[in-house]
Amino acid sequence: MSITEMALTRKRTTFVLLAIILLAGLITYRSMPRAEDPGFIIRTALVLTLFPGASPERVELLVTDKLEKRIQEMPEIDVIRSQSKNGMSIIYVDIKESYSEMRPIWDSLRRKVEAAAADLPADVIGPTVDDEFGDVFGSMITLRGDGFTYAELKEVADDVRNDLLLIPDVAKVEIHGTQDERIFVEFNSARLAELGLSPYQLRSILTARNIVFPGGEVFTEDEQIALEPSGNFESVEELGKTVISIPGTNALVYLGDVANIYRGYVDPPKSTVRYLGEPALVLAVSLREGGNIITLGASVLENVARFEQAYPIGIEFDILHFQPDFVDKKVRDFARSLSQAIVLVVLVMLIFLGLRTGLVIASLIPAAMLMAIMIMGILDIGLDQMSLAALIIALGMLVDNAIVMSESIMVQIREGKDATRAAIDSARELRIPLLTSSLTTAAAFLPIYLAQSTVGEYTSPIFEVVTITLISSWLLALTITPMFCVIFLKVKKMETATNYDSKFYRAYRRFLLVVVRVPILTVLGAFVLFFSATLLAPYIPAIFFPANDKKVMSAQLFLPLGSPLSKTRGVVER
User: Fold this and answer.
1) Would you say residue 337 has pLDDT above 80?
2) Within this chain, do residues 113 and 233 fall inside the same structural domain, yes or no?
3) Smaller CB count within 10 Å for the chain: N or C?
4) What is the pLDDT averaged over residues 209-225?
């Protein structure tokens, strides 16, 4: 017994299964992951090494070159790109696109870098391997405070970060624009010389006083007691009261009497952030794999509103970039396109096939879409630019199966067959041709899926979703469409043969006779059309990805190598 016969003989079971599919599709649609772009593998790692005070030539010779030679030993390497700057070596390691399991490769890279570190100069800081610098942060929150210092803003940012990390869909929260705080001890060389102190002696005295290591342990029969030295500094005032003995005398002075002690920030800073012309910090929030960015966005906005009420007046939170809005717009555009497609199909079917036939055929669109979304949820395919584009592409093709099936059933009913027998015979006759047609259409997108590249990974959902949707359409065309045709269609049997003597049929007959009688010209004409289209193809604009319509612009400003950050900041402010 074929699936069409089962659907027709067990209508209640078929209706229940259809209801389950529709309900499962709706539930999956509401809960499935949403993101702007599909996930793909980042095959690039960053090796960063600091060499304070070294020129670019020394950095290249003593650091970058040695690291590159070790890294080149890895067989997975595709390209190594490096930059040697004042006091800094930056190496980008690109892995071949044929590799998909990156964790063992990054572990091997770290071992190579650790082995090379033994040959680097003693003053080198690092090297460190960063294989997560390609993370995408879809939500960015700025933090400003009129009258608040960077240290106070950092304290608020740390608390906010801890709260944001509690959101289930958050993978990581990074803080940008922070300034490293330091305690500065500024002394006058003439004053130290007057007291007979050298800067080295002053440093030794402070080092001996500021004890930050454990003091050992004392064991008794009943207890183990950890000894913690109390010589470390707890405040700037305490540091200023440090007693310094003058060499060669019994005199004692306070450190605050011979030096200016104050709290400040590293100058020049590594990076700064300004928002609306004011100093600020930025909290960047990234989405976990498989998460829903729209749900994440709602949680972020809810938390930001709470932060604004919880922190003192003067602390301001602003949304700098909010990717959930873009994703939500795309999902709403898809739902609008789906609704428009159903309406258009119904109107066309009503005009050319009548009320009942139009409704029967149009019912396949939401059913096939929800069935495809249900299967996408099972296969962990979320809603993003590629999957939504594939669903919209499939809209224009999935209705073909229902049209062909319903037309065949109506023709056989007009010829005198019983409705049930016409549905079964039509399904038996068309199931292989319709399957072949669906698979052929899906195969047109197969090269995208098979491409061994990052672009192939990014666009692979197009083939997957189109194939799922067309197969869903084929299954429903063999089950639901015949059942609806039997139940709802009212087709009158033809008492006389079809009249093929109308003007349309006579003109069509003359055209066919010309084509058949001169086959050489027909085939030649087909080749001419084909090659003409091939020759004209280069004049058609070629674009793989459509233009980005987001209202976001970024600009990068590069000053000559060696320009201080203060100059860059001044240019940007102007």
Assistant:
1) no
2) no
3) C
4) 74
Residue type, 242: T
Nearest to 208 by CA among 253, 262, 244: 244
Q: Where are the beta strands (DSSP E) in 10-132?
A: 44-50, 77-85, 88-95, 125-130
User: Are residues 369 and 470 part of one domain?
Assistant: yes
**DSSP secondary structure letters along 219-241:** E-SS-EEE-----S--SHHHHHT
Residues 363 and 493 in one domain: yes
Residue 220 covered by a domain: yes
- Three-state secondary-structure class, residue 270: coil
Whether 492 and 396 map to the same domain: the answer is: yes
Contact call for residues 293 and 327 (beta carbons, < 8 A) = yes
CA dist., res. 182 & res. 151, Å (int): 11
Residue closest to 327 by CA, chosen among 553, 135, 544, 139: 139
**pLDDT exceeds 90 at position 519:** no
Give residue 232's pLDDT: 66
pLDDT tens by residue, 392-409 = 888 778 888 888 888 888
Q: Are 97 and 78 in contact (CB under 8 A)?
A: yes
pTM: 0.72
Burial label for 12, CB within 10 Å (0-12, 13-18, 19+), is exposed
Tokens at residue 267, please? 């100058």
DSSP letter string over 151-191?
A: HHHHHHHHHHHHHHTTSTTEEEEEEES---EEEEEEE-HHH
Do 13 and 94 share a domain, yes or no?
A: no
Helix (H) or strand (E) holding 463: helix 454-488
Query: Does residue 260 sit in the same domain as residue 194?
Result: yes
Q: Reduced to 3 states, what is the DSSP secondary structure of residue 50?
A: strand
CB 440 within 8 A of CB 498: no
Domain span at 21: 3-31+354-498
How far apart are the C-alpha atoms of 469 and 475, rounded to whole Å? 10
pLDDT greater than 80 at residue 302: yes
Nearest to 187 by CA among 174, 175, 197, 173: 197
User: Does 517 reside within a domain?
Assistant: no
